[in-house]
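Assemble and predict.
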Amino acid sequence: MEEIEKTFSKEQAAIEAERCLYCYDAPCETACPAHVPIAEFIQSIRTDNLKGAREIIQEAHPLIETCGRICPEESFCQSACTRIKMDTPIKIRELHRYITDNTDPSENLELVPATKGKIAIVGGGPAGLACARELRRFGYQPVVFEKKQLGGVPANEISATRLPEEIEKKEARFVHHNFVSEVKDTTIKSLEELDKEYSAIFISTGLSGELNLDIPGNNLDGVYYSRELLKRAKSGAKLPHFKRVGVIGGGNVAVEVASVLKIEDPLRDVEVIYRRGTKELKAFKKEIEEAIEVGVTFQFLAIPKKIEGDKRVEGLVVTRAHLGEKDPSGRRNPVPIPNSDFVIPLDAVVIAIGQKADVYFPKVERDAKGLVKVSDGLMANVKGVFAGGDIVRGASTVVECVADGKKAAQNIAKYLEGGKNV
Amino acid sequence: MYKKIDLSMEFLGIRLENPFILSAAPPTDEFDIAYNGLKAGWGGIILKTTSVEGNSVPLKYPMMSSFGSMSRKVIGLGNIDLISGYQIDEIEKRVKTLKEVFPEKMIGASIMGTKKEDWQTLVWRLKKAGVDLIECSFSCPQGSMGEEAGRMLAQSIEATEKVARWVKEAAEDIPVLIKITPQVTDIVEVAKAVKRGGADGITASNTIPSLLGIDINTFEPYPSLFGKGAYSGLSGPAIKPITLRTIAEIAKNVDITISGNGGAFNWRDAVEFMAVGASNVQFCTLPMHYGFRTIEDLKRGFAHYLSDMGFNSPLDIVGKALPNIKSQDELPSPKTLAELVEEKCVGCGLCYSACFDGGHMAIDWDSEKRVPHFDEEKCVGCAMCMQICPVDAIKMKEKIEGSNSVYYFVEKR
Ligand SMILES: Cc1cc2nc3c(=O)[nH]c(=O)nc-3n(C[C@H](O)[C@H](O)[C@H](O)COP(=O)(O)O)c2cc1C
Ligand code: SF4
């Protein structure tokens, strides 16, 4: 599948970089969870020093090809751009991508010898890889436990139209090769399975489970879960043959899976069915726009009530809703309208209403949703056990997980060395 | 996490960590600012021009102005500054302290005097304080001090040679640079006078006398001090082409070390200065505009350039372009034609307009498709269209008669 977004040309990049004010104490850098030195890399684009620009970003962030493509810049760096007060913000992510698309990872590395202790990192996604890289830079030996392809959700699930497989794999391989002492192909489910040889543990398993939609008919043939479809699509396998599919949900995963389904077979009708309205959609703006562009339709204010069918899915009964009071997240809740049920004829239903944690590590304290509880320094209730990424935050973004990984590494070093080397 | 960048080199017997020096100007005029500049990674520093005690320096503010468009305000920076308000008693202390804190960096100082005793006293005291290098300002656009106040010392061949000799006599083995002005009839004669005077090198060059602008409603000049203004020294990107010419002309004609200065704004400019003969590059407007943090891109960009080009040391590029610089009459005479890169053309029509009114009416304009067509009969290959094309879609194809080889002229930005 071909990528949708095209990289900037040299002229576009030069003109966009020239617009950057090169602010002092640049607010974009503070707004980036990984604190990428944005003003500095843009200055290097101006002088056409792309290798130097690459090094600046790479130093702050291990997965820069990935974030150059899928980072929701409108929520982070770009939202803080000073230029908003003058005209429009600098297209920061696209400049970032221009650099990564035109340079190779800098091999110009020099690391201190890995003479310090081994650290177990459970889960090889963005948080785990960021933590490993940072620890290796401090001189530790990070050992990553991962059964799947290294790289986590971006590598295994995010659609190739937004993030080509080889990009993420290349990047994860680079981190593996240069910064990870060992990758172990095992699933760790309790602290006891890890030997005493590890001086500290970082749990970054992410959210492996999916929330079930508790309505009648959810066990019929033709009911799928979003992430299993995304994984199949990313691995290159063909998706099941259906013609009219409803995707239930309103987050990034729902919109993503809808786009993937539509792009795979443009003759297939794909509709996102969502309880609330347009404004309440949780998916990022750019993803929604891309979905609309490829032909995904949206059915708003429709609460799923029942999946109809004998053995196979034949339709979805929904109740019309209007928007009521705001919930704690500030989004207005759907209120069902009496006697407003109607049927949407479908031959498949994809459930994409959220993810959940698999509850491993019995000694590690969790909240009601199964997320690991941590201190400010990302330490869990067990000493020497740290956690970060989606298993702590709930579903989040690559850059936030990277930020957690970096922060955890610093706190692990602080914990082991009593404040030195941090 | 990256290998250390090594840009170290020798300059007049002084080891420089990198060839990027802060010039004698506001970024070196306060102790704390100078300290921060060195700490940020600049290779060396020349403290702002000082004088003997009791010399009055009647500074006037505001002193800065600029010219440029709204989207790029500081193409040229103007100032009506004078030398430092701090005198030698203070500067000798600073030299001592900075040398103690930064033994690895070049600590230079700039001086200006009137009489022989002044110049030589300044040198002796700086030498005693441990200065690595002395620069003499012969080129403040507000004029030098002494008999011919208002004129610049470097505008007189005799004075240049005489004062250079006084200074070098006192400095002995401490290297001396003479900072000159491009505002002379023959720069080569000035450079020869510096050499005859015995100084070790030339800083080419200082700001250039200019008038930054006039308010068209009130007729006040910029900068305006209660409605009145004076000529300013012009620095920044606007003067880079003049500096390139100054350095090149000296380097081609006089065997003397050159420190490049005047209009360098990034590592690419620094490479150009060195390619025409400078051994290092001084900066003032760049750090004044964007701060000392600019050293990072200077170093990284310069280092990647050297390694991509296969050079081992910054000194490897010094003078590389000089053999290619000729006088107009020595140049080959290729038959030249404009050539359009069609995929790049955006159809603005600017080339048509430029050639029609300012070239040779050699472009036909297809107003339907909005594309230019170049008439090979009429095009002389002047390259005006190429200059104004906003997307670099025009290049010049050159051919020497009787030969098959083709050469393309394109400008890289
Ligand atoms: C405000 C200001 C004050 C300056 N004062 C001095 C000075 O005291 N002595 C001197 O030799 N040059 C002085 N200069 C000139 C700079 O050192 C430098 O030669 C000039 O600005 C050109 O370099 P640039 O284009 O990198 O700024 C001054 C420049 C400015 C802008
Ligand atoms: S830069 Fe502005 S604030 Fe600073 S001294 Fe000059 S006029 Fe004052």
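The mean pLDDT of chain A is 93.
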